[in-house]
C-alpha cells in the first residue's frame, strides 16, 4: 500500500512564531539605524547650513524609535505572509511521484520552488509598501518637530514651514522667491503656493478654491503640530492624500526588492566560486565553509547590495515623503532632480547606517529564530493538566 513520506523541517506554526518573533525583535533592535538612514536621505544639509538652521537630529532614545511601530507591524505581517504564501504556493505546485516500491511522494521541482518564492516575495512586498510610507511620515514628523523647537530656541526670524507666506507681501511672490529668501523644511507639507514656487510655476488660479483652502488649512494644522503617534499619523496621511498616501513608491519598492535579491545571490554565488573554484557541486547548500569564509561571504554580499541598491532606496524615500507625489513625477525624474540639485553624493545618503543594519540584521534574525524555535519545540512537547 502506498504511503506518503513524512515532511522534514519546522511545522508552519513553529516557523510563524519563530519567524515573526525574530522579525519583530531584530527590527526593534536595529531600528535606530533605520531612523538615521531615512533622516539623512531626506535632509538637505547644504540648504540647512546656508540659513544656519540648528540640527534636527534625535534628542533622545525615544525619538530614535519614532516610526518603529510601523516597521515592526509591517515586518511581522510581511514575514507571516511570506511563510504562509510560500507554503501554500509550493504545495499548490507540487507534483505526486512514486518511487520504485510504489510509495507516493510529494515533490516540488527547483523551477517551481523559484516560482513559489517569487509569488511569496510579490505578496509580501505589497504588505511592505503601506507601512514604509507610514514609517517615513512618522520620521519626518519627529524631524520637523525638532526643527521647529530648535529654531524657536535659536530665535530664527522666519517660519521654517513657510506658513507665513500669505503675510509676506500683498503682491504675489515670484516663482521660487520664498525658497531663496529663507529655509523651508523638506519635512513640512508644502502649501499650494509653495508647491507652485518650488516647481517654478505661477500660482494656479484654482489655488483659492474651497478644496485648496481646506487642504492648506490641514497643511497649516499638521505643520504647526506634527503628529507623533502611529494611529494619528495614519489619520493624518488619509486626510492629506487619501488612500494614495499608503501606496506611494510601489514601483520603486518592487524594483529595489528585486535588485536586492539579484545582487545578493549573484555576489554570494560568484564569491563562493572564487573561494572554492574546483568544487564540482555548485549547489546553494552543498558547500562547507569555515566561519571566517561565511562571514566574509555575508559582508561582501552586503556591501554589494548597498553599493548597487542605495540609489533606489534614496529615491524610494523621497517618493514616499510628505511632498513626494507633488514634487516628483516618477523614479527617473526623482533621480535626475536629486543629482542636479544636491549632487551625485545625494543618491548614496544613508549608506553607512543602512549597511550596518544589513550586516547586523541577517545574523541577528537567524540567532533569534533559532532561539525561539528551540523554545517552541520544547513547549510543544509538554503536556498540561495531565493526570
UniProtKB/TrEMBL annotation:
Main localization category: mitochondrion
Gene3D superfamilies in alphabetical order: Mitochondrial carrier domain
InterPro entries reported for this sequence: MCP_dom_sf, MCP_transmembrane, TXTP-like
One MF annotation (Gene Ontology) recorded for this entry: citrate secondary active transmembrane transporter activity
Source organism superkingdom: Eukaryota
Membrane-topology descriptor: Multi-pass membrane protein
Protein family according to the UniProt entry: Belongs to the mitochondrial carrier (TC 2.A.29) family.
The protein's name in its UniProt record: Mitochondrial thiamine pyrophosphate carrier 1
Organism field: Scheffersomyces stipitis (strain ATCC 58785 / CBS 6054 / NBRC 10063 / NRRL Y-11545)
Amino acid at each position: 500500500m502506498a504511503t506518503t513520506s513524512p515532511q522534514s523541517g519546522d511545522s508552519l506554526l513553529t516557523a510563524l512564531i519563530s519567524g515573526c518573533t525574530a522579525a519583530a525583535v531584530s527590527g526593534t533592535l536595529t531600528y535606530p539605524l533605520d531612523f538615521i538612514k531615512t533622516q539623512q536621505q531626506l535632509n538637505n544639509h547644504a540648504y540647512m547650513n546656508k540659513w544656519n538652521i540648528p540640527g534636527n537630529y534625535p534628542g533622545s532614545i525615544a525619538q530614535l524609535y519614532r516610526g518603529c511601530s510601523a516597521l515592526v507591524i509591517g515586518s511581522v505581517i510581511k514575514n507571516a505572509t511570506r511563510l504562509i504564501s510560500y507554503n501554500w504556493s509550493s504545495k499548490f505546485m507540487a507534483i505526486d511521484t512514486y518511487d520504485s516500491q510504489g510509495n507516493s511522494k510529494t515533490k516540488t521541482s527547483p523551477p517551481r520552488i523559484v516560482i513559489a518564492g517569487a509569488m511569496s516575495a510579490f505578496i509580501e512586498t505589497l504588505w511592505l509598501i503601506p507601512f514604509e510610507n507610514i514609517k517615513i511620515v512618522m520620521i519626518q514628523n519627529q524631524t520637523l518637530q525638532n526643527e521647529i523647537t530648535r529654531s524657536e530656541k535659536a530665535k530664527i526670524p522666519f517660519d521654517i514651514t513657510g506658513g507665513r507666506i500669505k503675510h509676506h507681501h500683498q503682491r504675489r511672490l515670484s516663482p521660487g522667491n520664498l525658497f531663496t529668501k529663507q529655509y523651508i523644511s523638506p519635512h513640512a507639507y508644502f502649501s499650494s503656493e509653495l508647491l507652485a514656487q518650488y516647481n517654478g510655476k505661477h500660482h494656479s488660479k484654482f489655488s483659492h478654491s474651497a478644496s485648496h483652502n481646506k487642504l492648506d488649512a490641514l497643511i497649516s494644522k499638521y505643520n504647526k503640530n506634527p503628529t507623533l503617534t502611529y494611529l494619528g499619523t495614519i489619520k493624518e496621511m488619509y486626510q492629506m492624500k487619501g488612500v494614495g498616501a499608503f501606496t506611494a513608491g510601489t514601483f520603486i519598492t518592487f524594483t529595489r526588492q528585486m535588485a536586492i535579491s539579484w545582487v545578493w545571490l549573484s555576489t554570494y554565488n560568484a564569491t563562493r566560486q572564487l573561494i572554492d573554484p574546483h568544487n564540482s557541486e555548485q549547489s546553494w547548500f552543498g558547500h562547507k565553509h569555515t566561519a571566517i569564509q561565511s562571514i566574509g561571504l555575508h559582508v561582501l554580499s552586503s556591501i554589494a547590495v548597498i553599493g548597487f541598491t542605495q540609489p533606489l532606496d534614496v529615491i524610494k524615500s523621497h517618493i514616499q515623503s510628505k511632498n513626494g507625489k507633488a514634487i516628483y513625477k516618477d523614479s527617473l525624474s526623482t533621480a535626475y532632480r536629486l543629482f542636479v540639485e544636491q549632487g551625485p553624493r545625494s543618491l548614496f545618503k544613508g549608506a553607512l547606517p543602512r549597511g550596518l543594519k544589513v550586516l547586523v540584521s541577517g545574523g541577528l534574525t537567524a540567532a533569534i529564530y533559532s532561539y525561539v524555535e528551540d523554545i517552541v519545540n520544547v513547549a510543544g512537547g509538554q503536556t498540561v493538566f495531565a493526570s
